Amino acid sequence: MDVEKISADRYRLRSHDHIMTVSSQDLLDVMDWALQHAKELEYEAQQAEAVRRYNADMDARDRIIAESVDKPWLPLHDGE
User: Fold this and answer.
1) Using one digit for the tens of pLDDT, what is the confidence trace for 54-64?
2) How is the chain split into domains, by residue range?
């Protein structure tokens, strides 16, 4: 997130594709809320990162499977 002071008591917040203009009091309110909910926010961020890593692992596995070639010269394993 980027914060830019655009005039006296006005700030522009940019996050991803969203833009929001707020007052300094609004920023203080957000900061207070974030401090009060810091543990919950940290937990949610950790969960989101775990999901991102899992999805990246599954995407990598899917790419490997898609790129794999049959090897008829190798013996079959039990149950195949």
Assistant:
1) 999 999 999 99
2) 1-36, 37-68
